[in-house]
Amino acid sequence: MDHDDLSAEEAKIIAEYAERYKPHPYRQVFFPPASGDWKVDALYVDGFFEAAKDLLEGIVAGRLSEGLHGVAAVYLCRHYLELEIKYTLYHSRWLKQENANAGDGEVAPLKEDHNLQGAWDTLVRELKGKVPSVWKSGLDLNFVSKFVAEFHRIDAGGWRFRYPQKHIAVAPANAPHKDTLGISFDALLSNLTRARDVLDTLDGRLVDQYGENEEWQSILNDL
């Protein structure tokens, strides 16, 4: 790079930095309806899964940086898993028993926490009590159990991949050195995809069972 090129590059850097000090017009991002009662029109479970998958595929292929994009990918994986399990648990509560649907007033709400292991354990317990055929179907729920258990061991509190430390503060002078967590992004991508296949199948089965029960009840009511 010659002197003129260096000067041009320097001028460009200075101009870009100086731009930070110039006022810019603000562009509104969110447009809530006049009613004030709104929702986000989005596919939450699919969205977090696809975003996590895209990042992981980029990292595994070498297009994206582990150090830069990895932590966001892991967080998206964990949050996807939490959402998928909670929606599956919610749909399991549509059933009073395998062949009988619960009324709207009988569907218990889910806890407002981020306890991944707790949500999974609750789902397993309710499925064993209400939909035992799931356990005879061969669906690989044991794989999901292992995936959940590993995430829970590493991040029981649900903050490890959202914040670099639990409390953002000056570390004590005598704070011990912390070693780096090893992460296999290739294994994470594989496990995420497998868990998605299993949970999506399970959730679909529960929703289909609810529909079959509704249809059968309608036939009985017409007799």
Order of strands in the sheet with the most strands? Answer: 1-2
Radius of gyration: 24 Å
How many angstroms does the end-to-end distance come to?
88 Å
Order of helices and strands: HHHEEHHHH
Unreliable stretches (pLDDT < 50, length at least 5) are none
Dominant shape: elongated
Strand content: under 5%
Short description:
This protein has 223 residues and is mainly α. The chain has helices spanning 3-18, 44-61, 66-92, 116-130, 133-136, 141-154, 185-222, and strands spanning 95-97, 100-101. It has a domain at 42-99 and 109-165 and 182-210.
Describe the structure.
By secondary structure, the chain is mainly α. It has a domain at 42-99 and 109-165 and 182-210. It has helices at 3-18, 44-61, 66-92, 116-130, 133-136, 141-154, 185-222, and strands at 95-97, 100-101. A two-stranded antiparallel sheet has the order 1-2. Helix 3 (66-92) runs parallel beside helix 7 and helix 6 (141-154) crosses helix 7 (185-222). The longest helix is centred in the C-terminal third of the chain and has 38 residues, at 185-222. The chain is elongated and about 90 Å long. 19% of the residues are buried. The model has no long low-confidence stretch (mean pLDDT 94).
Pick out its properties.
223 residues; mainly alpha; elongated
